[in-house]
Amino acid sequence: xxxxxxxxxxxxxxxxxxxxxxxxxxxxxxxxxxxxxxxxxxxxxxxxxxxxxxxxxxxxxxxxxxxxxxxxxxxxxxxxxxxxxxxxxxxxxxxxxxxxxxxxxxxxxxxxxxxxxxxxxxxxxxxxxxxxxxxxxxxxxxxxxxxxxxxxxxxxxxxxxxxxxxxxxxxxxxxxxxxxxxxxxxxxxxxxxxxxxxxxxxxxxxxxxxxxxxxxxxxxxxxxxxxxxxxxxxxxxxxxxxxxxxxxxxxxxxxxxxxxxxxxxxxxxxxxx
Length: 273
Hints:
Elements: E1 3-4, H1 18-27, E2 32-34, E3 55-57, E4 59-66, E5 69-76, H2 83-109, H3 115-119, H4 130-139, H5 146-154, H6 169-178, E6 182-185, H7 195-207, E7 212-217, H8 222-234, E8 238-242
Parallel strand pairs: 1-2, 2-3, 6-7, 7-8
Antiparallel strand pairs: 4-5, 5-6
Helix pairs in contact: 4-5
């Protein structure tokens, strides 16, 4: 079964409109798809479940922190009309607006003027995030590509890496579960934690009601997948997988092209099929 439960449209920080992403998913013969916008569900007002074999599951990717480390929690199969979920999304939207202003101020102090206004056209009318600032820095010739923008100005520990006051991990998981969804720890390998620290995160995540983790996120080594699968089994979590697709031409995060889960993992989608 081809399952992709983590991807982005241009209503988040991806490049494809929701309609085009859905078309690509059908072309890739994806069976179950969740679109997981950063702190928003805007894409679901533009598309509906298509006819045919593809099952569209509601999704979101919430930003939060754990012990002052930025992490992401994916919510899957939620009631998108749930009042508490919608209040949570509004809280995150305000936080993102404040963050964008602070990033603009930091970049201004480095000599790059009007970055927030310059980044807005890249956000398709949505909240401006670091990838949009990166695209503007490429446009004005400050850097040669997006990767360089993050390495110099926007990545971890750089001037534009603003530690925003996101909602707490407890709140994020409560919003997801309150809307009938499943809370999933997103791309755990990307946090570059020691195994000991990752285990502590998983323990707190589970105590707060987390039920699943992404065993596979985009292109991974076999050893990474096996390591995440063993942790998933150890903590009796459901296993998810997703490409973290943002744009065509990124083979490390190609929509619907992830590997299968190890046989001993229980898929999070088993309860929906």
